Amino acid sequence: MRASLVNQLRVLVPIKRTIDYAVKIRVASDGKGVDQNVKFSMNPFDEIAVEEAVRLREKYKDAITKITVVSVGPPKAADVLRTALAMGADDAIHVEVPDKASANPLEPLGVSKILTEVVKKAGEEEEVGLIIMGKQAIDDDASQTGQMLAGLLNWPQATYASKLEFPSGKPEKGAEAQVTREIDGGLGIVKTKLPFVMTTDLRLNEPRYASLPNIMKAKKKPFKKLSLKDLGLEDAVKPRQEILKVAEPPKREGGAKVKNVDELISKLKEAGRI
Amino acid sequence: MIATAVLPRVALRSANTSVRTALPLRRGFATSHVDLANTLVFLEHKKGIFNPATLSALTAAQKLGGDVDALVVGGESEASEVAEKAAKFPGLKKVLYAKHADFANNLSEPLAPLIKKIVESNGYSHVCTGHTAVGRDIFPRAAALLDSSQVSDIIGLEGEDTFVRPIYAGNAIATLKSSDKVKIFTVRGTAFDAAAQKGGSATTAEVKPDAVESLTDLIEEKVSESSRPDLATAPRVVSGGRALKSADNFVKYIEPLADRLNAAVGASRAAVDAGYADNALQVGQTGKIIAPELYIAVGISGAIQHLAGMKDSKTIVAINKDADAPIFQVADLGLVADLYEAVPEMLEKIK
């Protein structure tokens, strides 16, 4: 039996193109950013968000009408949107911002304002009922955007999620959700109602690899481009923070090796550490 | 104690604030018009026990100069009591407290509007707390409501508008200048000393929240019970990695060594993901960031993600079979050995 259309859910997954997590970062010669001529990929926490959305549909079949991925970034951010489409998302929205390299990147506040408008605009065709996104980007390590977006939308938030469940049956508008969150010292379980913003922790799931046929299929999926002008946000997202300097962290002295346990213990005693 | 709906403002401060508000935001504005900071610190506590990162945030706030007030929230019965405790923290002028059944669980939806209300009615120029699970959850939401671009996880302050923070998992350190009217930041607990908790005499005042909207409810918390020192603040930490091979070995090798040294137990992500240790013990970019006096990494290769969580430790010891493991590049003392032999030998020889 098909669920009635009114209760079905559209899931929005904001994703970010970041320097690949395995790349050893180098501070740029101008001292204002890091070297950008390296491998980029989808922020790992966002991959988990895409995976969770796709799994929700696999689990609840008809309950989810559409998974829309959105990225705010330079032209090359289109690559990560294609990856997300190949993982199983249905359509993509790319809010294109000029590529100004590393100088003064968009801040989470600006991104959350843009996403707020995207949610509204997407709602004109079909309302968004759940937003799943990474808990932080591995470049700026800010861990802010999901919370800011929830605040601006006045939606509930469930951050640092390691489990998402729908005790009442399935995800539909107004349904209750139970989210297990990773907190200092253990886990916290919260209950909230759709729509809400969830941010993903690493343990939520293990993202799939996109297969070649799915990568080919992804090329044909709907892909919409928007500019800040389209959203009326050209001024609203001006950076509030000026990066004065980016520096290498203090280097640690490469370690001396000890021969055996006795030497280790005596050196630790000498240093007053034990 | 008198409950006040809108808190009294200092006349001079409110004059300054209105001048600031009237001027457009411009880069470099803050330095051309320096006035003393007026800072609110959100003091995080759990049943009256203050989070250590909160005490570091207090130290950071005091470095800004100017007045420092604190905010304490809690359930109906606890808030005023905890506020009295906080009033003894030296250097605080005033402790504001707000009580509501929904404040006890530190949920962001009711607390972010409360912070916005207090900041706006008192004209605070700076608001900070620890970069903890609670601080990370509440503060960005409050920042968005105040239209402020938050600065997360600061490790240094270079003036009232200039912050130092790690980016790219600590592989680069950024210094940035904020032009926000209200500067909202979270503080890395290990980067500032903990503020003293005795000797002060601040006043306390209740703030009545506006209608509290509860969008989420806490059902339960599962906190790992442990008699060992707290990982985030322990002076010594013994950490185990993938090489432990099982949860049993973690108990058999890592825990006794930690107990012998009166150390906290930590784990790498690999050990946590494999189920050898609880995820609350994870040290790294996505877990806890710690800086103990002594960090002993047992069977941990030293992935970038892990190093981000412990490379500021005073002394790092690595015990690993693989002489080429990256952990040896940061370890002060490295022992290339099989942990199953080295750890029991250490236990025997450390008395």
TrEMBL record, chain A:
Cofactor requirement: FAD; AMP
Source taxon at top rank: Eukaryota
SUPFAM superfamilies (UniProt xref): Adenine nucleotide alpha hydrolases-like
Main location: mitochondrion
Single GO molecular function: electron transfer activity
UniProt-annotated location(s): Mitochondrion matrix
Record-level GO cellular component terms: mitochondrial matrix
Entry-linked CDD domains: ETF_beta (cd01714)
Cofactor note: Binds 1 FAD per dimer.
Any single biological process term in GO: fatty acid beta-oxidation using acyl-CoA dehydrogenase
Alphabetic keyword roster: Electron transport, Mitochondrion, Transport
Pfam families reported in the protein's UniProt record: ETF
Electron transfer flavoprotein alpha/beta-subunit N-terminal domain mapped to chain residues: 30-235
Family classification: Belongs to the ETF beta-subunit/FixA family.
Subunit structure: Heterodimer of an alpha and a beta subunit.
Role, per record: The electron transfer flavoprotein serves as a specific electron acceptor for several dehydrogenases, including five acyl-CoA dehydrogenases, glutaryl-CoA and sarcosine dehydrogenase. It transfers the electrons to the main mitochondrial respiratory chain via ETF-ubiquinone oxidoreductase (ETF dehydrogenase).
Name of the molecule in the record: Probable electron transfer flavoprotein subunit beta
From TrEMBL, chain B:
GO cellular component: mitochondrial matrix
Binding site for FAD: 242, 268-269, 282-286, 299-306, 320
Cofactor stoichiometry and binding remark: Binds 1 FAD per dimer.
The keyword Nucleus is assigned to this record: no
Annotated Electron transfer flavoprotein alpha/beta-subunit N-terminal domain residues: 39-222
Stored PROSITE patterns: ETF_ALPHA
UniProt cross-references to InterPro entries, sorted A to Z: DHS-like_NAD/FAD-binding_dom, ETF_a/b_N, ETF_a/FixB, ETF_alpha_N, ETF_asu_C, ETF_asu_C_CS, Rossmann-like_a/b/a_fold
CDD domains xref list: ETF_alpha
Protein family per UniProt: Belongs to the ETF alpha-subunit/FixB family.
Protein name as annotated: Probable electron transfer flavoprotein subunit alpha
